[in-house]
Design brief:
Elements (H helix, E strand, L loop, with lengths): L1 H14 L15 H4 L10 E10 L7 E11 L9 E14 L4 E15 L4 E15 L30 E16 L10 E11 L19 E11 L5 E12 L2 E15 L10 E10 L3 E10 L2 E10 L12 E10 L2
Antiparallel strand pairs: 1-2, 1-14, 2-3, 3-4, 4-5, 5-6, 6-7, 7-8, 8-9, 9-10, 10-11, 11-12, 12-13, 13-14
Length: 333
């Protein structure tokens, strides 16, 4: 009975008026979904793939996939005032037995103003087209209970006027980035720093499956900060991350850090090749502990993480957490 109740709860959350965006635990691996201004910030050309599987033990798992590609339109030189960048972000999210699917493709643009030899200030925007759909045939409706139990042979009589619809989306953001090149091996030195904010769904698109329903997608605001700090020497680093986002009454606060050890190259920036292994621990406030391992091999980067649910949800049907995989490639590094 608990499982039936939980399935109904998930369907209600996804189907209800307080529609919320998808999310990843590896927030730094989906930069354009984090802040449009991060378009072009990772390097000359950057490509990424992400996959998340959540709550596998409860009915149909929640699955999210994303792919991103962004490139600078000109080289960032010391004697230039800045550079433009373009990006493309695609994602697909499917939740629960009702197969509520949200897919979107967005075009991002950003300009990064050079402040000095180590710092830039970026402004970005995005415009996207999305589609949402639901399969009501897989639902368990109130009028399918015969007074004692759920009976799938009873016709639900439920119809959805907008089982599939499209919507337009837009947003903006700003980011400050600092990077110290050839910083030497001094311990506890900040070698890079990133901080910024983003605003998504500024146009408040219509977002309802119900006829005559005026539900609109609430704006989502994000704050993000990360750094890379040398520890004992330029071969070891601490990479703290802080992330906060809010969408109406829904809030998410994630914080933690990764330890990074350089197998080849270092924080000093004196070598072209950069190979490292990392291990990290993060906390999503009142929701989950997140363990993460990863490595970088030249231009390739892989990360694997797992969410250990610590909220009350873990007591319902012994819910499993979520795992994520991410892969990225930096061209021309």
């Amino acid at each position: 009975m608990k499982k039936i109740q939980l399935i109904f709860l998930f369907g209600l959350i996804s189907f209800g008026l307080k529609a919320q965006d998808l999310h990843f635990s590896q927030v730094d691996q989906v930069p354009m979904m984090l802040n449009p201004a991060l378009t072009g910030s990772e390097g000359p050309i950057h490509a990424s793939l992400n996959y998340r599987n959540q709550w596998k033990s409860v009915a149909s798992p929640f699955q999210t996939m994303a792919a991103g590609f962004d490139a600078r339109l000109q080289k960032a030189r010391r004697n230039t005032s800045g550079f433009f960048a373009l990006g493309l972000q695609v994602y697909n999210d499917q939740t629960g037995d009702l197969s509520i699917r949200t897919a979107q493709v967005s075009l991002n643009g950003a300009y990064h103003l050079t402040l000095n030899r180590n710092s830039t200030l970026g402004l970005g925007i995005y415009a996207g087209l999305g589609q949402r759909s639901i399969d009501g045939n897989n639902g368990r409706w109130g009028n399918q209970y015969n007074g004692l139990a759920y009976d799938p042979s009873i016709i639900s009589g439920e119809t959805l006027a907008n089982a599939q619809f499209s919507f337009k989306d837009a947003g903006t953001g700003m980011v400050y980035r600092f990077r110290r090149n050839n910083g030497g091996s001094q311990s506890w030195m900040v070698h890079s720093l990133t901080g910024g904010f983003g605003v998504f769904h500024v146009n408040r698109p219509s977002y309802s499956f119900l006829a005559n329903e005026k539900e609109r997608l609430y704006m989502r605001s994000t704050l993000y900060g990360s750094a890379e700090i040398s520890m004992k020497n330029a071969k070891t680093a601490l990479v703290p991350v802080l992330f906060y986002q809010q969408q109406k009454s829904a809030r998410e606060f994630l914080y933690g850090a990764s330890y990074r050890y350089y197998l080849q190259g270092s924080l000093s920036g004196k070598t072209a090749k950069t190979n490292y292994v990392s291990i990290g621990l993060f906390n999503r406030w009142k929701d989950a502990m997140i363990a993460k391992v990863g490595f970088q091999l030249d231009q390739y980067q892989f990360n694997l993480s797992y969410d250990f649910t610590i909220s009350d949800l873990s007591d319902i049907a012994k819910t499993q957490g979520a795992f994520e995989l991410s892969f990225s490639y930096l061209f021309g590094k």
